[in-house]
Recover the amino acids of this structure.
């Protein structure tokens, strides 16, 4: 099979996927040969395709557990003698695919050589993969993700439901600086503000129309009222630091520039993959925290909930995380219930101490259900606290805790 890049171009490089014990194996065919009779060299897009596959695997937080050259000349060698990596390679949405590719191929030329003169670094090799959510029986499903869309088609806009669902319960801001909480329920996005505590409904069909326009034309206006689809999409885009926001007078601009938020609010995008990568990161985060179960526990109150009522909440706000912190999916987030714990933590009413004990800051005069919730949480144990997550909880205590 061959991969299709984000512009719909099929790359000339063959690869296959197959089950390999309890892992999935990616077999990359070699590149080389001389041009003859007008025919190009075999698998001439080897490097481009490998970087594309590594980037997509990074979006799935895959781990390359082993990689070894697999050619006719190396059939008599042990796996250790054919190996091209010394330790597992952990791929994340922030992995540099070019560097990862070079790390995989730089030692290929020395495998099986009896002299110090190295051979080619575009040999046939096998990489064993561990991919969250994919087992040896899921090679076809993983292949569909790695291959990409059909040749000749532009990348489709992300699905509105898939894009917004991981953000359910998140507190966000529009490009105009208006704050709101996003709720996603039964085909509708609800924008909850102080003026509209019950939420303003935005049909996901309307959000999809805006996304389709963005992917089709390259820009959209996002300076509408807080309860409009364009404003909501703009708020989502602002959460992706890798995409530049550019104020332009009209919608013709297709350029990209970081910073600058004055003037007419139009969002220009030239790299659709960046948003797709962010969406993939969120899905990977949720998958890592929840796994394949249907019921899980809130890390703060400890109660069990259907997974649809749990939020994959960043302990340290994603917008201020470094690339390395955003890639630390196992530690930078926790599961919090949408019935209250997520909002209480986000607003700083509760925090987690260095010993893992839940701290509570009660505003003067608090009564009713809020007082009851805070009383229930005070002194409890946070199941997400451990040495590797303490740095993120410490950031939250310093920046947000009201106690």
């Amino acid at each position: 099979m061959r991969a299709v890049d984000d512009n719909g171009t099929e790359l000339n490089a063959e690869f296959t996927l197959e089950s390999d014990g309890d892992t999935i194996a990616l077999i990359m065919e070699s590149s080389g040969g001389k041009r003859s009779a007008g025919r190009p060299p075999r698998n001439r897009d080897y490097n481009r395709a490998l970087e594309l596959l590594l980037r997509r695997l990074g979006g799935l937080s895959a781990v390359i557990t082993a990689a070894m050259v697999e050619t006719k000349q190396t059939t008599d060698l042990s796996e250790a003698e054919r190996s091209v990596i010394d330790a597992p390679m952990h791929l994340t949405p922030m992995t540099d695919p070019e560097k990862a590719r070079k790390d995989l191929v730089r030692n290929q030329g020395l495998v099986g050589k009896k002299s110090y003169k190295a051979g080619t670094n575009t040999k046939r090799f096998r990489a064993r993969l561990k991919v969250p959510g994919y087992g040896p029986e899921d090679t076809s499903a993983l292949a569909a993700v790695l291959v990409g869309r059909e040749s000749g088609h532009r990348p489709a806009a992300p699905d509105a439901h898939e894009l917004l669902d991981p953000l359910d319960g998140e507190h966000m801001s529009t490009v105009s600086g208006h704050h709101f909480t996003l709720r996603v329920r039964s085909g509708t996005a609800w924008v909850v503000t102080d003026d509209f505590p019950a939420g303003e409904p935005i049909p996901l069909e309307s959000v999809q129309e805006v996304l389709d326009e963005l992917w089709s034309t390259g820009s959209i206006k996002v300076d509408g009222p807080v309860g409009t689809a364009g404003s909501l999409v703009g708020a989502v885009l602002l959460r992706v630091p890798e995409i530049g926001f550019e104020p332009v007078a009209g919608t013709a601009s297709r350029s990209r520039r970081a910073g600058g938020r004055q003037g007419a609010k139009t969002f220009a995008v030239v790299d659709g993959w960046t948003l797709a990568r962010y969406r993939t990161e969120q899905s990977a985060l949720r998958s890592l925290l929840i796994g394949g179960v249907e019921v899980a526990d809130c890390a703060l109150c400890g109660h069990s909930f259907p997974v649809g009522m749990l939020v994959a909440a960043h302990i340290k706000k994603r917008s201020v995380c470094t690339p390395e912190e955003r890639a630390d999916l196992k530690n930078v987030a926790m599961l919090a219930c949408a019935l209250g714990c997520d909002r209480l933590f986000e607003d700083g009413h509760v925090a987690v101490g260095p010993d893992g004990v839940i701290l509570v800051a009660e505003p003067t005069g608090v009564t009713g259900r809020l007082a009851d919730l805070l009383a229930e949480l005070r002194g409890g144990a946070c199941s997400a606290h451990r040495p590797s997550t303490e740095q993120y909880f410490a950031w939250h205590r310093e920046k947000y805790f009201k106690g």
In short: The chain has three domains: 2-147, 160-274, 293-399. The CA atoms of residues 27 and 126 lie 5 Å apart. Residues 149-155, 241-276 have pLDDT under 50 and may be disordered. The chain is about 30% helix and 20% strand.
